[in-house]
Amino acid sequence: MIKLLLLMILAHVIDDYFLQGILASMKQKSWWRKQDGYKDMYKDDYQVALLMHSMEWSIMVLLPGMFMFNLPELFLAAVFVVNTAIHYYVDDLKANKLAINLWVDQGIHIIQIILTWHIMLNVMGL
């Protein structure tokens, strides 16, 4: 089952470093303020980008397990919501509140993956 963990970590790296695209910039409040024509009505739009990235990341990390196992839908929904919320909070701490660095950000995401992997194996009785 180490293969599953490694695939989940690979999915994390692919999503957090290669697939974010414009969301990497848009999830930062400061990016919005620097745009020509910025208006106060856009002050919270970074949250949408942050949520989209967090949801995308959560799905990517779950994909290997979804391909390997017939995971219960309630489990998938719960893990998706929890991982999305944690990823959102952690990325906001790094990108907007400037309270943590990339080491801490990535460490927390790896812990998320390990916990998700462990719970997934328990759900499948492995």
Tell me the total number of β-strands.
0
User: Domains counted in the coordinates: how many?
Assistant: 1
Rg value: 16 Å
Into which percentage range does the β-strand content fall? under 5%
How many H/I helical runs? 6
Query: What's the rounded overall pLDDT mean?
Result: 96
Description of the molecule:
With 126 residues, the protein is mainly α. It has one domain. The protein is built from six helices and no strands. Helix 1 runs antiparallel to helix 4 and helix 5 packs antiparallel against helix 6. The protein is elongated, with a radius of gyration of 16 Å. 23% of the residues are buried. The model has no long low-confidence stretch (mean pLDDT 96).
Q: What are the main properties of this structure?
A:
0% strand, 6 helices, 126 residues, mainly alpha
Q: What's this, in brief?
A:
The protein is mainly alpha-helical and 126 residues long. The chain is built from six helices and no strands.
